[in-house]
Amino acid sequence: MTKTGLINLIIRFFSLSLCGALIIGALYLQAQALQAESEPLHRGAHSAQWQTDSLHSASGSGRLAVDSLRPTADSLSPQSDSLKVGLSPAQPGISAQQGAAAAAYTAASQTKLPKGVKISPYDAIFQKEAPALGWDWVYLAAIAYHESGFRPAVSGSGAHGLMGITASTGRRVGYSVAQLKRPATAVQASVKIIKRFEACFKDIKDTGERIKFTLAAYNAGNSHIEDARRLARKHGANPDVWDDQVAVYLLHLSQAKYYRDPVVKHGRFNGKRVVQYVNRIVSKAQEYHAKGE
Q: If phi over 0 gives left and psi between -120 and 50 gives alpha, with beta otherwise, what is residue 206?
């Protein structure tokens, strides 16, 4: 082989190698995109990371507050009727996918319950564990309904079981993933988590209001809720009342005018889903309570 032929052969070899590398890289990127598209949406409360000072999350995705999963839509107007979010798919601030889930929830709630069961097959567990909270047990039932549709083995986006708790959060309160998928221990874990968040709002004397703040923290961590309370206090609203008071300022945290305020310690946050979550849990609990009357 001549020197020129050898050089041409070497050039051809490297050209083919480069093309192969580019093709492999393109296939990898396409596979990553398909995987991202196929991942399920986050299921609620414990996709959030702990945001308490004593239980700071290592992940920063925050469920217990999810930076990577926070919605980016404009916040609701503080004067909007959309602050009172129900389960209708037509409600402002609810996407088509959320609306479909809401419709499924509504259909499930209208399903005839088995004989002797008022709400779910797990009523006895909720009733047993609720006294440790001092809450009506129907709040635990409402959380379970929202998080899993009463399916104890369900998993999605890192959240597991009846109460929708992530593995990392479960470990913080002493429960394995296997235990989170067992109804009795899942509810016990949920009660421990709720109690820790409720302790953050012990200065709120009204039980009904404290429950709403605790539910908000259960969904998103307490840090942004505390920011909203500080904003409410600064602007003359009641920092101990959720509806039309702190909830409004939680929604305001998506606006630079508010999240850049010196009293805000944890930055920007879109609180629309949190407001929706609290309204849905409280509404569902009231519905369940009415069934027992």
A: beta
Write the CA distances from 256 to 228, 252, 264, 269, integer angstroms: 14, 9, 11, 10
State both tokens at 239.
């920092």
Residue 228 tokens, joined: 């909203």
Is 147 one of the annotated active-site residues of the chain? Answer: yes
CA distance 35 to 279: 33
Closest by alpha carbon to 44, among 117, 125, 134, 142? Answer: 142
Per-residue confidence (pLDDT) for residue 83, from 0 to 100:
30
| Rounded distance between C-alpha atoms, residue 220 and residue 215, angstroms | 9
Instruction: For residues 193 and 175, give the distance between their C-alpha atoms in angstroms, rounded to a whole number.
Output: 11
pLDDT, one tens digit per residue, over 148-205 is 999 999 888 789 999 999 999 999 999 999 999 999 999 999 999 999 999 999 999 9
Where are the alpha helices (H) located in 71-206, listed in sequence order? 96-109, 123-129, 138-148, 167-172, 177-180, 183-199
Contact in structure between 133 and 191 (CB atoms under 8 Å): yes
Regarding pTM above 0.85, the answer is no
Instruction: Name the active-site residue from 39, 129, 147, 226.
Output: 147
DSSP string, 128-165: HHGGGTTS-THHHHHHHHHHHSS-TT-EETTEETTTTE
∠ CA 137-138-140, nearest 5°, is 70
Q: What is the pLDDT of residue 291?
A: 80
Q: 292 vs 289, which has greater pLDDT?
A: 289
Q: What does the pLDDT look like over 61-86, one tens digit per residue?
A: 233 332 222 232 222 223 232 233 33
